[in-house]
Amino acid sequence: MVMRKTLLFDLYHPNLRSILDATNEWIHDGINNGVYKCGLATNQEAYDEQLFDAFEKCEEILGKQQFLCGNILTEPYIGLFVTLIRFHEAYAVIFKCDKRLLREYNTSLFNYMKDIFQIVGLITHELSFYKPSWDYIALGLNIDYSLPHDRDRFSTETA
């Protein structure tokens, strides 16, 4: 089942650019690159460094508001999602970023993933690119991102 909604708005809203740039920076450094830093770590300190702290920061923010930069869909929300949707299937398995799986965070981060998945209608089977051609591989968690989430509890505002 593919869910589609047409998005006709600016993800890099002029009134929010300074906060968007700052959020993009810590998302990119702590999470988007954090999975690689974690996966390529040569010691425990490097492994523990930023990734899971950045997840905690997301959990805290998303527990108070629908999106990372208020109650409007913006660029950092999408930038975060592209890494998170690959996390269980790829990064937790291949890069051993399994200190804590996303579904183990309270509920905000995992419900966020279901929310954004349902907005843009992504299909998880496209993640097969990340499954290596070894003799055996982890089968994955078979997570259904189309299940209900609680993100509608936040009001929708304009920037």
TrEMBL record:
GO terms for cellular component: cytoplasm. GO terms for molecular function: glutathione transferase activity. Signal peptide: none annotated. PANTHER family: GLUTATHIONE S-TRANSFERASE FAMILY PROTEIN, GLUTATHIONYL-HYDROQUINONE REDUCTASE. This is Uncharacterized protein. It comes from Eutrema salsugineum.
